[in-house]
Amino acid sequence: MFLRCAAAIVALGLVGCWVLSLRQSRLLAAHELASSQLRFREIDERLWAARSRIASLVTPEHVGTAVASLGPLKPLIMPVSPDGGVAPASMMEWALSSREGVGPAPDGSVVRVERGAARDPARRPRTP
User: Fold this and answer.
1) What are phi and psi of 112, to 5 degrees?
2) Which residues contact 115 (CB under 8 A, 6 or more apart)?
3) Which residues is 111 bridged to in the sheet?
4) Element (H or E) spanning 112, and its range?
5) CA 104: distance to chain centroid?
6) For the chain, which residues make up each domain, given as ranges?
7) Residues near 105 by beta carbon (within 8 Å), at least 6 away in sequence
8) What is the pLDDT of residues 74-126, one digit of tens each?
9) CB–CB of 110/99 below 8 Å?
10) 20-47 pLDDT, tens per residue?
11) How many angstroms from the chain centroid is the CA of residue 71?
């Protein structure tokens, strides 16, 4: 009888230790979650402070002087030939002056230039 009581007390002690360890791990996880949320909040506050400093420094006058100091600007969109290569600069000038954006290339092929299209010929502009 003594052996059964001792075994029951030891088993209850082990179950109690297991429950306490589960509780401790849950509290540790909650603490880590709270500390990570505080770190995220501090990072967000620094980010918004940096964004507000940038916004206060970037004014239309500053942008205008920065663009003027760069010299003449070139367009980002280059006409693409049917074989996927970039058309010559004269073709680009022709395409920008053209209303439809379709016309003969110097080699006789037809090149279509869409205004505002992506540089990658595989990408197509989204349609609503």
Assistant:
1) -110, 130
2) 77, 101
3) 103
4) strand 110-112
5) 39
6) 2-69, 74-120
7) 81, 87, 91, 111
8) 766 665 656 666 555 555 555 555 444 444 555 655 555 455 444 444 555 55
9) no
10) 999 999 999 999 999 999 999 999 999 9
11) 30
